[in-house]
Design a protein that fits this description.
Oligomer: single chain
Strand order of the largest sheet: 2-4-1-5-6-7
Shape: flat
Order of helices and strands: EHEHEEHEHHHEHEHHHEEHHEHHEE
Largest sheet: 6 strands, mixed
Radius of gyration: 23 Å
CATH architecture of the largest domain: 3-Layer(aba) Sandwich
Structural class: alpha/beta
Strand content: 15-25%
CATH topology of the largest domain: Rossmann fold
């Protein structure tokens, strides 16, 4: 899974990227012209606790790719410049994370001269709506021409879906609010429509705005067309400084600033929810590992994530939920308590399940 960080220049987007990617020399990446990608571990306290209990030779966290697109700049005509390269960078992500600026800094001017996160969100949304509208219009023209020539049934099925999407976008509404069916989404999946991608919005505050977070987020939400968008407040500069501290000092400073959760945890947790993802675990003396799956995956589907042979030769899954394992402390005691069980192919795996796959 790849999350793309998108924002105007000087929004703190790259500072956030450096924090979650563990980059120690921010000067190397500030104001860069090229996109940057890093694979980061998904923090999971449950896996850490299981590692303490099993003391395996190796622990493997789930990972996620964070993609930092260069910040959008003002061009010579006084407008923010949107390039083809920028759009190509954006469309290759599984989800988008808008980073908008709420902090004030006289030494770093906002590209639009004033700090206004609601306006910045609207600007990004509008540009992406224009991109989708142009693509959909072009696709409709092409489909109609091809249908006239070939009478292709697949294209005939696609056309009304594209036309429905076009009407929605033309009404200045992002496609993620259209409520498309699974079949419709499958038809659209290859087109990388920007407003169809899951969206998270990160609002970058400074230490002087800690008491204003809730009211500011409420104001931003009121300005959005979709009131249910996920908004993640974070403190870019503070959290970058905290990332270089040892664990004990970091916890103390987070408490002093009233920061209950790191930016990485908040972003990845929100992304998992938005993308419908969850984790299950495999444990043992050799390795403890967290595996990422879609919600509603069956035991057989989950086995296939581990190895294709496990899917094809699946027999049963031994299942204990993490909470039950922690309560009882061992597999044998879980069996005695009746919380260890054998499940078949169609068992729906839950977030936090510990699995052992039996296969032929």
């Amino acid at each position: 899974m790849q999350i793309g960080l998108v924002g105007l220049q000087y929004s703190g987007k790259t500072t956030l990227f450096n924090t979650i990617a563990g980059i120690e020399n921010p000067e190397m990446s500030m104001g860069k012209e090229e996109a940057t990608i890093e694979v980061v571990k998904v923090p999971d306290k449950r896996l850490d606790i299981l590692t303490e209990m099993f003391n395996p030779k190796k622990t493997v966290h789930a990972t996620i790719e964070i993609f930092d697109t260069p910040g959008l700049k003002m061009s010579d005509n006084g407008k923010v410049k949107i390039t083809t390269q920028f759009m190509n960078n954006v469309k290759n992500n599984d989800a988008l994370f808008y980073v908008v600026r709420q902090f004030s800094d006289g030494s770093v001017a906002h590209p639009m001269n004033t700090v206004n996160p609601a306006r910045d969100i609207e600007f990004l949304e509008t540009e992406f709506l224009f991109y989708d509208l142009a693509f959909l219009e072009s696709r409709i023209v092409k489909l109609k021409k091809e249908i006239m020539k070939t009478k292709d049934e697949k294209m005939k099925r696609e056309l009304p879906i594209i036309e429905k999407c076009y009407a929605h976008v033309e009404d200045e509404k992002p496609l993620r609010t259209l409520g498309l069916s699974d079949d419709e989404l499958k038809i659209l999946s290859g087109y990388q429509l920007l407003t169809l991608k899951p969206l998270l919005i990160g609002v970058n505050f400074d230490e002087n705005s800690i008491d204003d977070v809730e009211s500011t987020i409420a104001e931003i939400r009121d300005s959005l067309l979709n009131k249910d968008e996920t908004i993640v407040p974070f403190f870019g500069k503070i959290e970058y400084e905290l990332s270089s501290m040892d664990e004990e000092d970091r916890i103390t400073f987070m408490e002093d600033y009233g920061i209950k959760e790191s930016a990485l945890s908040k972003i990845l947790g929100s992304a998992y929810d938005k993308l419908g993802l969850q984790s299950f675990f495999t444990v043992g003396e050799d390795e403890n590992r967290a595996w990422t799956i879609k919600k509603n995956y069956t035991a057989q589907d989950s086995a296939g994530v581990i190895h294709t042979d496990f899917y094809n030769k699946f027999i049963r899954a031994e299942v204990v939920h993490y909470d039950d394992y922690i309560t009882h402390g061992s597999f044998s005691k879980c069996k005695e308590a009746g919380v260890w069980r054998l499940e078949g192919k169609q068992y729906i795996v839950k977030d936090g399940d510990i699995l052992n796959i039996r296969h032929s």
